[in-house]
Design brief:
By secondary structure, the chain is mainly beta. Helices cover 6% and strands 38% of the residues. Strands 6-5-4-8-9-7 form a six-stranded mixed β-sheet, with no helix packed on it. It has a three-stranded antiparallel β-sheet with strand order 2-1-3.
């Protein structure tokens, strides 16, 4: 790898995170879903946040989401993210809320309520991250 390429910060892996990050690397994101009550959860954990069941399975997400909050940063904090860059909070169709970035041209006006779809961004250092793009 080129020494001039900024390194993407590595994900902080808890005890239950590796299957999710492996699925992201494979460009087929999966999240945990409770086999008892059907609740989807993010971040991953050892038990269902709704009913406390430990019977969880990894299921693919639809990739559909809605922006519920957004911000544009005009200051650079990390070398891998030159300013200006955005951060968005999306509610996945399955229910969980994720923080990510919007790929492509930003919409005019407020972004809240805009429909987006999951895409996979390969960073210059080879890391694969889940991002979102506006629905066409």
């Amino acid at each position: 790898m080129d020494a001039d390429i900024a390194r993407t910060p590595s994900p902080v892996l808890g005890l239950d995170d590796r299957p999710m990050w492996d699925s992201i690397r494979d460009r087929a994101m999966r999240l945990q879903r409770c086999c008892g009550c059907g609740t989807w959860q993010y971040p991953p954990g050892p038990g269902c946040t709704a009913c406390l069941s430990e019977n969880l399975e990894w299921r693919p997400v639809s990739g559909k989401a809605t922006i519920i909050s957004w911000v544009v940063f005009h200051r650079q904090y990390l070398a891998a993210y030159p300013a200006p860059y955005n951060a968005i909070a999306v509610r996945l169709a399955e229910g969980p809320v994720m923080i990510s970035n919007l790929e492509g041209d930003p919409p005019e006006g407020s972004w809240i309520g805009r429909q987006v779809r999951l895409v996979y961004a390969e960073m210059p250092d080879g890391a694969v991250l889940p991002r979102f793009a506006l629905q066409a």
